[in-house]
């Protein structure tokens, strides 16, 4: 009774898996929500608030989106390294959410391009920390057998965030105006800060990175195994060690390239649909809505499927179908294809293809965190303590964060260049070829049950 009385008020629900996963899910959602929230506002911001020439809009849009991903990719490894050395993940996650608030206020205010870029830099650093610390906290909390399902839940929020950000801002900007639109992300951030203050970490006792496991097994390691932890426990050694694994490398490449193609919609869809179909920001918001809604319902079943039959088959099929529907997205509204021209079925083909891509996306999203976590835990079982006393989970998610933000960096820039030089149709055909190549690698190297 004395022990129970020393527990904080509400300890049971504040330390429950559901509350922890819910808090992490909201944090990941808002980080990716903020990435795309600005997209529909950029033409208004550049032309009306910053008085830039309209001919610069495509280039400035790609630049702002690229900066966010670049900063996140640079800061991720450092955040993962230092977070793995801290006894608690509470403080870094709280600081990262606060950084998101400050960066968002600067972006909303942005009286000049310099302030806008500074805000995006802060959002990039803070967002990277949210991703890394949040996923590591979740992985500490859950059992390995539930990894796919729980990651599916978190990735459903992540997918919804990256796509629904433009959807919400696009709809609200026309309806309620610029400043009221910004109250939505700031409100969600404040809610998550409060949830993080309430949350009490409750690491799973069988976590492979726990101190007890490492301490109990260190004296039993053979001589060769004593060498491997020394090599793999440091940040650079950790990365080099894992990147020699073809399964890990394939998962990271898939994460990078599929994220790049997904975020290409942010840089190209608003301008393409305005020029081709005459759609306004409201119709653009609806397109992003159609891309995001399926993930809310299918990410958890997709994670459950990974737990039951492995990653290989679902993701291979999904990647092939992605290739098909990107071709349809590219030809929709192109007069060289009379059956899909603007006057005939072009808008219907475009909208239907967007819905199909949104439906397929949950079977691709999350392959990086799931596969890398499984790989690291497999190595830990073989050689306990190989990645240090904390198990390296923060560095694992730093790797997946670098892969994702690397995709965010190259996606808008590459798609902007491809669209300007070769056209929207050719750009999507290139994406289709990339998906086919990724499907081949997935079939060869990813894990089956």
UniProtKB/TrEMBL annotation:
Residues 24-449 form the Major facilitator superfamily (MFS) profile domain. SUPFAM superfamilies: MFS general substrate transporter. Keywords: Membrane, Transmembrane, Transmembrane helix, Transport. GO terms for molecular function: transmembrane transporter activity. GO terms for cellular component: membrane. It is found in: Membrane. CDD domains: MFS_MdtG_SLC18_like. The chain crosses the membrane at residues 20-40, 60-80, 92-111, 117-138, 150-173, 179-199, 248-269, 284-304, 311-332, 427-446. It is a multi-pass membrane protein. Belongs to the major facilitator superfamily. Vesicular transporter family. This is Major facilitator superfamily (MFS) profile domain-containing protein. It comes from Penicillium malachiteum.
């Amino acid at each position: 009774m004395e022990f129970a009385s020393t527990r904080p008020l509400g300890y049971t629900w504040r330390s429950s898996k559901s509350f922890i996963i819910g808090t992490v899910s909201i944090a990941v959602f808002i980080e990716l929500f903020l990435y795309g929230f600005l997209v529909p506002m950029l033409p208004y911001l550049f032309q009306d608030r910053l008085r830039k020439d309209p001919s610069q809009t495509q280039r400035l849009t790609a630049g702002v989106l690229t900066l966010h991903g670049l900063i996140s990719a640079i800061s991720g490894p450092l955040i993962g390294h230092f977070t793995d050395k801290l006894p608690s993940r509470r403080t870094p996650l709280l600081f990262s959410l606060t950084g998101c608030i400050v960066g968002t206020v600067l972006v909303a205010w942005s009286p000049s391009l310099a302030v806008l870029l500074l805000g995006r830099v802060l959002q990039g650093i803070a967002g990277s920390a949210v991703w890394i610390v949040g996923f590591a906290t979740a992985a500490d909390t859950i059992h390995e057998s539930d990894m796919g399902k729980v990651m599916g839940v978190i990735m459903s929020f992540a997918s919804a965030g990256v796509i629904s950000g433009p959807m919400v801002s696009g709809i609200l900007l026309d309806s309620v105006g610029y400043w009221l639109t910004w109250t939505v992300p700031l409100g969600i951030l404040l809610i998550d800060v409060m949830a993080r203050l309430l949350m009490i970490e409750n690491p799973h006792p069988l976590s492979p990175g726990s101190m007890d496991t490492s301490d109990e097994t260190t004296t039993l390691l053979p001589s060769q195994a004593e060498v491997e932890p020394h090599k793999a426990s440091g940040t650079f050694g950790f990365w080099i060690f894992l990147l020699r694994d073809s399964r890990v490398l394939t998962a990271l490449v898939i994460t990078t390239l599929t994220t790049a193609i997904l975020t290409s919609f942010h840089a190209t869809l608003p301008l393409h649909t305005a020029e081709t179909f005459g759609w306004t920001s409201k119709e653009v918001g609806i397109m992003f809505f159609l891309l995001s809604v399926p993930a809310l319902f299918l990410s958890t079943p997709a994670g459950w499927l990974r737990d039951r039959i492995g990653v290989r088959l679902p993701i291979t099929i999904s990647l092939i179908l992605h290739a098909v529907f990107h071709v349809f997205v590219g030809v929709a509204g192109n007069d060289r294809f009379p059956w899909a021209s603007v006057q005939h079925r072009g808008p219907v083909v475009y909208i239907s293809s967007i819905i199909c891509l949104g439906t397929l996306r949950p079977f691709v999203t999350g392959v990086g965190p799931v596969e890398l976590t499984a790989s690291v835990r497999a190595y830990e079982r073989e050689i306990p303590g190989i990645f240090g006393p904390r198990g390296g989970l923060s560095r694992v998610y730093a790797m997946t964060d670098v892969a994702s933000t690397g995709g965010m960096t190259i996606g808008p820039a590459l798609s902007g260049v491809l669209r300007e030089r070769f056209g929207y149709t050719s750009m999507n055909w290139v994406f289709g070829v990339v998906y086919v190549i990724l499907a081949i690698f997935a079939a060869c190297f990813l894990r089956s049950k």
